[in-house]
Design brief:
heterodimer, A: 239 residues, Rossmann fold, two-stranded antiparallel ribbon, B: 83 residues, Mth169, Chain: A, 3-stranded antiparallel sheet
């Protein structure tokens, strides 16, 4: 049976929402503290949103060196899925598990509102249930969400189809809307080459409950629930 | 020996620096329209124990590459003095 570790850093604040979204799709989830050196056997890791370590120095820069991140690095290197949401995405970039960086929003203001995004890459552990090109309305809530990367990195991400979510293209009337932060190529989420590590600025866990309206974020969690480890990496056979 | 090192971390040239732009607008509004090309970075001071000035600089460069600056978006300058 799959289990998910939701990592809690000092300053995480979307950890409970993430845990509940996972439980909603029938998968076991547990919190893992940032000082833990192990993921307690979890198959999938979520780095939730928030302001880990007060965003000191740069968003995600200190969290990257917390003890649990050593375990997350090993987990990712072994092909284990990792989903970073918002601050989690910033941590994944700082940890070099994903390329690029997330800088202060182009408009400087903290942006908290729903935005429209298109799901592009569906060959990931967290978007497999979506049809490519489907449009979702997901909330964003961030001050440092402007994705930047070197020109050749951006070309590589596009050429390899590693853009997972893209803000719906801007119009002439509102050059920064709905791209809420000035991200390069309107990028809202990317993945590693194999699709196991995914970073998203929008918050699917906040719209994963039908009680709160159209649950556009639920698919990320039903995808996660459908993920199975490749047989070759199973180290302990089930009894 | 202990060396006092000043690290200046700046957003890489060519990258949009919205904080610098906002400060420039504010300066202009306050009667300083002559200020231009404002960029906002970060200064970090630290003391480092090392055998020589060169060693101190090499150590702080490692610190910058690992943590103090983000190699994707920032450049840094060091100034090493005796403490």
């Amino acid at each position: 049976m799959l289990t998910v570790a939701v990592v809690r850093f000092p300053g995480s604040n979307c950890d409970v929402d993430a845990l509940r979204a996972v439980e909603r799709v029938g998968v076991m989830a547990q919190f893992v503290w940032h000082r833990d050196t192990s993921l307690h056997g979890a198959d999938i890791v979520i780095l939730p949103g928030g302001f880990s370590y007060g965003d000191y120095l740069r968003s995600g820069a200190i969290a990257r060196f917390s003890p649990v991140m050593q375990a997350v690095q090993r987990h990712a290197a072994d092909g284990g899925p990792v989903l970073g949401i918002c601050n989690g995405f910033q941590i994944l970039c700082e940890a070099h598990l994903l390329p690029g960086a997330l800088l202060r929003n182009a408009g400087l203001a903290f942006v908290s509102k729903p935005v429209d995004v298109v799901v592009e890459r569906t060959a990931t552990a967290f978007t497999s249930v979506f049809e490519p090109g489907v449009r979702l309305r997901l909330p964003v809530a961030h001050g440092d969400g402007r994705f930047v990367a070197a020109e050749d990195t951006l070309r590589m991400l596009e050429a390899e189809g590693r853009v997972v979510l893209r803000y719906v293209p801007a119009t002439e009337e509102s050059p920064l809307q709905p791209n809420p932060n000035g991200s390069a190529n309107h990028i809202a989420g990317i993945s590693n080459a194999t699709g196991t590590v995914v970073g998203l600025m929008p918050h699917p866990e906040r719209v994963a409950d039908p009680l709160l309206g159209v649950p556009d974020g639920l698919g990320f969690f039903t995808s996660l629930a459908a993920w199975r480890p490749p047989v070759s990496t199973l180290s302990t056979p089930n009894p | 020996m202990s060396y006092r090192v000043q690290v200046r971390v700046m957003p890489r040239g060519g990258l949009l620096d919205p904080q610098g732009q906002a400060v420039e607008h504010a300066l202009s509004a306050l009667g300083f329209p002559d200020a231009s090309a404002v960029r906002v970075g970060r200064a970090i001071e630290l003391e480092v124990a090392a055998e020589s000035r060169r060693e101190a600089e090499a150590r702080v460069r490692q610190m910058c590459d690992k943590l103090l600056a983000n190699p994707v978006t920032e450049d840094y300058l060091l100034e090493v003095g005796e403490s």
